[in-house]
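Complex record, two chains
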Amino acid sequence: MDTWESRMMYQEHILDLYKHPHNTGRLKGATHSHRGHNPLCGDDISIELIVDGEKRVKDVKFHGNGCALCIASASLITDAVKGKHIDTVLRLKKDDVLGMMKIPVSHVRLKCVLLPLEAVQKTIINSRGISSTE
Amino acid sequence: MKLTNDRAAELKEDFPIFRRKIHNQPLCYLDNAASTQKPQAVINAIKDFYEHSYANIHRGVYQLSQEATEQYEDAHDAVGKLIGAGENEIAFTRNATEAINLLSHTIKPLVEGSTILLTEMEHHANLVPWQQLAKKEGMKLSFIRMREDFTLDYGDAEQKLADDCAILSVSHISNALGTINDVKRLVGLAKKNGALAIVDAAQSAPHGAINVKEIGCDFMAFSGHKMLGPTGIGALYGRHELLEQMEPFQTGGDMISSVTYESAQWNDVPQKFEAGTPHIAGGIGLAKAAEYLQNIGPESISAWEKELLKHTLESISSALEKGDIRLFNPGHKHSAGILSLNLAGIHAHDLASLMDDMGICIRGGHHCAMPLMNKLGVAGTARASFYLYNTTDDADRFVAGLKKAKEMFN
C-alpha cells in the first residue's frame, strides 16, 4: 500500500544525509577536483580528492548546493570512494549509486542522484586540474 | 456564470482524467500554467472527427474532404472569437512558440527602428526567437525592468519605447510569477512610438476575457494545450493588413496559389502561414475547447482563479512562518492564478517530488525563464497554477503539502 509513511524517495536515511551530509567542505592539497553542475535544476556540486602515490583516494570532500537526493548521493559516494583505487572508482555505475541510496528514484530525478558520481569520476578523467562541465 | 467551489467540482467531472488516482490519492492537478487537462467534449470532438469526417483538407472535391475543410476553417473563427479577432486574422501554428518564431522570421520588413523591447520576465519562447532575430539583423535587445514587487516598471517602459523601438513583445501574464502586465498601456505606448506590438498570451488567453481590438496589439500568440485543447496546435493573431503584407514563414504545399518550376505565388491569409497538411484534428479540438471556455465565461474563470490564489495566500500566511517561505508573486490584485514560491532549505524539485507523493502535481524548476531566475537569485521555484476545475480543496491540499514538507525537512 502506497501511503505517506511508506513514501518512496524521501525516506528518513535520505533526509538525514541531506540535513547532516558527510564529507563536506574543502580539501587542502587536493590533487583532483571537478565541478558538476546541472543548470536546468541548479544542482551544483564540487568534488575534491587527494589521490596518493598508489592511486588510492586518500581523502575526499564536496561542497555546493543541490536537492536532497543530490546531497544524499554526494554523501554516500564520497563515503564509498574513500580508500579505493581510482580504477575501482571509475568502474562505479548507476546501479551502484542506486544500491547505496536504497530508494527507488524516479526517471526525472536520476540526474540529481548521478551528478555526484559523474563529478567524482571526472576529477580522475580530467586529472589535469580544475575543470567544469555542465 | 460565476464559478464557485461547487461549480468547479462539477466541472471537474467533465474531465475524465480526474477519475484516476495518483499514489492512491485523488489527482490534485496544479500545473495548469504548463498544460491543462482535457474535457470529454474536446476528446470527443477529436475522436468524432477521426471516426466520421477525416480526410485531408482543401484540395479534395469529395464530400469527406469538404466536411473536413469546413470544420478546420470554422475552427479558426471559433478560436478567433475567443480573443475578439476579425475574419482571416487567425493562423494556426503548433503552439505559441511557433507563432512567435513565425513573427521573428517574417516581421523585419514591417518595422523601423533598431531595438526589440521585451521584459525581464519573459518565457524563453518570447526571448530566444528575438535573440536570434537581433543577431541576424544586427538589432538590439532591451528589457523593461521588473520592480521589486514583481510588477513592471512602466516609467522604464515609457523611456525604452521612445528609444528607437521597432518591436515590443511582452507577455500578458508571467508564467513564472503570475504578474498580469498592463498590455493595453504598453501597446498604447508602443503605437505612439511607431513600434509593432506583440502580446504573448500563452498564460492569458486560456484564463480570462481578452479582446485584441481593445488591447490594440498587432499580433498575439497562444497555445491550444494550455486552454483545454490538444497539444500541437496553437494560434497567431495578426491584424489582417499586416498578415497580408508579410512573407510566409514556411513554404510548400497548401500555402501557395500557383507554382511553376521557377517560382510560386502565395495563397490567401491564413493559408499562406499554414504550409503542409496542418494539425486538422488539433484545430477542431481547439475550437471545441474555445467553445467550452466561452460557455463558462472567460471573466468568471479569471475571477475564480484569483479567488483561489487569494485563498491560498491567506492559508499560507496562517500555516507557515514568514521566514520559512519566499513568495514570488505581486499579490492577488496584480496576479493571475499562479503562485511561485520557495520553502527555506528545500529545493524546488524536492518540494515537487514530495507533493507528487501526495497526489499533487506542481512544477519545480526555472519555468523556462532562466534569466528571470538569475535575477531573482534562485535556481528555480515551486509553482502551483490554477484552472477552472480547481477547488479550494485543491488549494488546501497544496498548503498542507507545504506544511508537511517543512516538517519533514526541518
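Note: DSSP finds five helices and four strands in chain A.
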